[in-house]
Amino acid sequence: MEKVDELVGHEISKLLLKLFADQIITVTNVEVSKDLGFAKVWISALNNPEMTIIECQREGPAMTKELSKKLELRKHPKIRFYLDNSPEYACKIESLIEEIHKEKK
Length: 105
Fold this sequence. Notes:
Elements (H helix, E strand, L loop, with lengths): L1 H18 L5 E8 L5 E8 L3 H22 L7 E6 L2 H19 L1
Parallel strand pairs: 2-3
Antiparallel strand pairs: 1-2
C-alpha cells in the first residue's frame, strides 16, 4: 500500500502543479484505502490555504479521471483533500516547550 500511496501522491503533485501553476502547493501525505475506494491527500499551501482546499475538492473528480489514465490500478480512488496543519502545530509545540524551559530557569 505504501507504493500505491507514493504513486498516487506523485501523480496528484503533477496534476496540482498544472492546475495551480500560480501557487505553491505541496502534497505532504497520501493515504489510499486498502480497497482503493478513497485517497486522503494532505496538502500545504502558502497562499490562501482554505480556498485552495475548496478548489482542490472541486477538481477532485477530474483528478480521479486523470489518475485512471496514468495509473494501472484495478480501481481508482476518489480523492479527498485535507489541509496539513502540522507546521503550525509543530510551531505551537515548540513555543510551549520554550516557555517551559524559560519557567524552569
